[in-house]
Amino acid sequence: ASTSHLQLATFALGTVGWILCTVSMGIVEWRVWHVGNTTIISSGIAWVGIWKVCFISYLHVSPGYKELFCHKFSGYDSSIPQEIYAAQGLLLIAMFMGLLGLTATIFALRNVYMGITHKTLITRFFLVGGFFYVFAGLCVLIPVSWNFYSVTHNQSIAFPPSYYMPSSPVVQEPGAAIPIGIVAVILLLLSGTFSLSYRFPVTTNTVTK
Fold first, then answer.
1. For the chain, counts of helices (H) and of strands (E)
2. Distance from the CA of 39 to the CA of which of 30, 89, 111, 140 falls in 20 to 30 A?
3. 101, 136 in Cβ contact below 8 A?
């Protein structure tokens, strides 16, 4: 057990990375759009996520109150860019792969700390866990990089009229989900690297007289 401290850290990093992956998938702040027309988007700011778009509107609301208006993306909206739909699928895969990596690591650590000296079994589970961590990290990296590229190049989205969104913002910037996703990538890749580096300790028998 004294030789598996790095793998214990792997489990901790992988857990945090998996949680951040899940958080980035759930929040709507992937792209922050600043719009010029505030007739409907009262605050002048809209948040474009991978599942929906949201903004604050005072329209048809009692004075002094505001309403958060959200519209979920539909699979039939051909105007939604591919990087958004790709992010939906890849992050779901990453969440599932990360969970498998955590499961494999837990099983391997259980055997180590219970004193089970099944070398092949323990090593294989650490390797499998490392593979899942790396795969999950890459699945997060692709949508994060793709959407960050779209933000930095101020790419427009031809939203349907029912979304009440302009086709392009005055300016846009990365939302909180992107840096969260970047940290998740780093932690998952580190976890995978540490887990893949596990080597079962070689023990030597000593004879005392």
1. 4, 5
2. 30
3. yes
| pTM for the model | 0.84
Number of other CB atoms surrounding residue 119 within 10 Å: 11
Q: State how far the Cα of 1 lies from the Cα of 112, in Å rounded to an integer.
A: 6
Q: Contact 9/133 with Cβ under 8 angstroms?
A: no
Reference 16, options 133, 125, 129; nearest CA is 133
Does residue 185 lie in a domain region? yes
Chain centroid to Cα 88, Å, comes to 10
Let me know if residue 50 belongs to a domain. Answer: no
Report how many domains make up the chain.
Answer: 1
Locate 190 and state its tokens. 């580190």
pLDDT tens, residue by residue, 6-16: 778 888 999 99
